[in-house]
Amino acid sequence: MDKKTAELVKLLKAAYPKAYCSLDHADPFQLLAATILSAQCTDERVNQVTPALFKKYPGPAEMAKAPLADLERLVHSTGFYKNKALSLKEASAAIVRDFGGTVPRVMEELLTLRGVARKTANVVLGSAYGIAAGVVVDTHVKRLAFRLGLTRHTDPGKIEADLMKALPKEDWIWFAHALVLHGRAVCGARKPLCAGCPLAGPCPRKGVV
Fold first, then answer.
1. What is the C-alpha to C-alpha distance for residues 179 and 144, in angstroms, rounded to an integer?
2. How confident is the model over 120-157, as pLDDT tens digits?
3. Is residue 204 part of a domain?
4. How many domains are contained in the chain?
5. Domain containing 149: what range?
6. Cα gap 123→68, rounded to integer Å
7. What confidence tens digit (pLDDT) does each residue in 42-84 have?
8. Residues 39 and 119 in one domain
C-alpha cells in the first residue's frame, strides 16, 4: 500500500471505524435477497420492504414456492419489481436445488444465481460470511474511488481490481462499507462537503465535483 493510500485508509478508519452493511438481515439468504432488491434503490427503501417479505417468505424454500405476483407486490416499491421478483424466486429455487438450501460461500457458485453479479456476491461473502473475495463496488464506491485517486476507470470490474491491488486484503470488506457511509454523509454526487471532509488532506480532487 503506497503512502497516499495508507493515509486515506488511516483517516477513513478514524472516521468510520465500525462501518457495516446497512441492509437489515438475519442470515445470508436475507442479505442476498436484500442486496438483489438494492439495485438502483436505496438501502433505506429496501429495509422498509424486507420485513413483510421475510415474514411471509423467510427462507429460500418458502420464496422458491411463492407466487410470482405476490413477490412482485411485496417488492414493487424498490423499482424494476418484475425482474427483482423473478430473480428472488429463481435464485431461491437454485439455492434449494443446487446448494441444499444454503447460500453458497464461493464466488463462482454465487454468480450462478439469477440476479447476482460480483457486487452482490461480494456483499454476501463479506457481510454474511466474513470472506474477503473482492471489494464491493456500488455507486458510492465507484464515485469515491475515482475522486480519491484510487482508480482511473469507470468499469466496476476494473475499479474492483484497482482497489484489490491498492488495499490490504484484511481491509477489503470494511473499506467498501466505509466509502458508502462517507459517500452518503459527506462526499455526495452533486455537492461534496469538502470543507468538513476528514479526507480533504490527501484527496486529489478536493473542491471538484
1. 7
2. 999 999 999 999 999 999 999 999 999 999 999 999 99
3. no
4. 2
5. 3-19+135-196
6. 25
7. 999 999 999 999 999 999 999 999 999 999 999 999 999 999 9
8. yes
Across the range 97-101, mean pLDDT stands at: 98
pLDDT average, residue stretch 186-193: 93
Q: From the CB of residue 136, how many other CB atoms can be counted at a distance below 10 Å?
A: 28
Nearest Cα residue to 203 out of 149, 166, 156: 149
Alpha-carbon distances, residue 209 vs 143, 167, 187, 203 (angstroms) = 10, 24, 9, 12
Retrieve residue 180's grid coordinates: 458508502
Last residue of some domain: 129, 159, 178?
129
In a domain, 36, yes or no: yes
* pLDDT level of residue 35 (50, 70, 90 thresholds): very high
Q: How many residues does the chain have?
A: 209
| CB 101, CB 61: distance < 8 Å | yes
CATH of the domain at 68: 1.10.340.30
203 located within any domain: no
Q: Is residue 205 part of a domain?
A: no
Of 119, 116, 153, 115, nearest to 135 by C-alpha is 119
Predicted confidence at residue 209, as pLDDT, reads 66
Angle at 81 between CA 78 and CA 82, to 5 degrees: 175
Check whether residue 143 and residue 85 sit in a common domain: no
Quick one: CA dihedral 32, 58, 47, 129, positive or negative?
negative
- 125, 142: one domain: no
Cell of 197: 471532509
